[in-house]
Specification:
The chain is of the alpha/beta class and 380 residues long. The protein has helices at 22-37, 51-56, 72-103, 114-118, 135-138, 171-181, 192-198, 212-216, 218-224, 245-251, 286-294, 304-312, 327-335, 356-379, and strands at 10-14, 42-45, 124-127, 156-159, 186-189, 207-208, 234-238, 261-265, 280-281, 298-301, 316-320, 342-343.
């Protein structure tokens, strides 16, 4: 139960909500909507968007990777491909930025530094979710994502389901994280493996909480998903490399697969050869991304959020295995007793109907534990 004294507190969140990535925006929306649904009124993301994160999505920064030390015709070809990449990336960025404005509540001004973040009026600061503690994305540990802009000024400082790659947790990194966590009143992470790495260095118990997309539930995303885009029955593929052999082979195991169109959602911009291909989608809004999964007959994915929305929209799905990238998806499938949906060999793909009555029961239990963590952490 919400403590009525806290319902008007200024709750602020630091996350990757400005990333030009469907999952990043959706997880931010999920945490925001959950807090609003619990009765907290003043919930905003701190509009922290440092240059190193902006640079990740600036296609012009790829110019230095354009090797023109070749024949004239190949130079022309590479420049054309690069121009295509820049244009489609700009279009994609634009569509996602428009979704961010529609979906998320943020502080009014973009902030670029810890000093600017420190000036934001904040009673309770929540760090999370997403991979905000992953040094592969932040170059080094960014103190802002550990509430270190002005930790002594917060009534409560807590983390909700931040994540990182286990390979990024070297001992020196862990010790610095442990030092930062001394300022926290409560800490949760998204994966058991991350907790196991950090817990020996932390003096208080850490918890594992579910990704905000799962926490928020289907109804919130139903409200914002675009109307059905593809009229015919179709298979939705949302994968890091959608043309890889395993993905192609799994599609062929779908019953009567030739009767379905196949639509591919890309993680990045389309290349020149994909221009005009109506089955390939990159420059789409977040709401359209949700629609492609929501109305699919089958889903093939290896993305954590591809899995999350397959579950929320009760899809028949399989997840393809990727070395060093499947930890989060595998952990969630194990919790839901859906291990058979993680596929390393296409011949073992499982296309029997998922028992969503049992899955939803398990998801409700997971949600309750995570809601309890949020309420207890804010109210105590």
């Amino acid at each position: 139960m919400i403590n009525m004294e806290n319902k008007d507190k200024k709750i602020r969140i630091v996350s990757f909500q400005n990333a030009h990535n469907f999952g990043a925006v959706c997880q931010a929306y999920g945490l925001q909507q959950t807090l609003l649904g619990l009765g907290y009124k003043d919930v905003l993301f701190i509009n922290y968007n440092p240059q190193y994160l902006k640079d990740r999505y600036n296609p012009l920064n790829t110019w230095q990777n354009l090797n023109l030390n070749t024949s004239f015709l190949r130079k022309i070809s590479r420049v054309l491909r690069w121009c295509s990449f820049v244009l489609t990336t700009w279009m994609r960025n634009r569509r996602i930025e428009q979704s961010i404005k529609r979906m998320l509540r943020q502080t009014p001004h973009e902030l670029m530094s810890a000093e600017e973040v420190a000036n934001e009026e904040t009673d309770i600061l929540i760090c999370g979710s997403d991979q905000i503690w992953n040094t592969a994305l932040t170059s080094s540990l960014d103190p802002v994502f550990f509430g270190q802009a002005k930790p002594e000024s917060y009534e409560k400082l807590l983390s909700y389901a931040p994540s990182t790659e286990i390979s990024a947790l070297r001992e020196d990194t862990i010790r610095l994280i442990a030092e930062y966590l001394k300022s926290f009143s409560a800490v949760s992470v998204r994966e058991e493996s991350v907790k196991n790495k950090l817990q020996p260095f932390v003096s208080f118990p850490m918890e594992v909480t579910v990704d905000p997309t799962i926490l928020c539930g289907q109804t919130a995303y139903d409200k914002i998903a675009s109307n059905r885009i593809v009229k015919k029955p179709y298979i939705c593929v949302y994968a890091y490399t959608p043309d890889e052999e395993l993905v192609r082979d799994i599609i062929r195991t779908i019953p009567n697969y030739t009767q379905y169109e196949v639509h591919y959602i890309l993680f990045s911009a389309t290349n020149l050869s994909q221009w005009g291909d109506k089955s390939v989608h990159s420059a789409i809004s977040v709401e359209e991304f949700l629609s492609y999964i929501k109305y699919a007959s089958y889903v093939v994915t290896n993305s954590f959020h591809g899995l999350a929305f397959s579950l929320l929209f009760e899809k028949n799905f399989n997840v393809t295995w990727i070395n060093n990238k499947s930890t989060r998806t595998e952990a969630l499938l194990q919790k839901l007793h859906l291990n058979s949906r993680m596929v390393k060999d296409a011949e073992k793909a499982n296309w029997t109907n998922v028992d969503y009555q049992q899955v939803n029961k398990s998801l409700d239990e997971i949600r309750k534990e995570s809601i309890d963590f949020l309420l207890n952490s804010i109210n105590d």
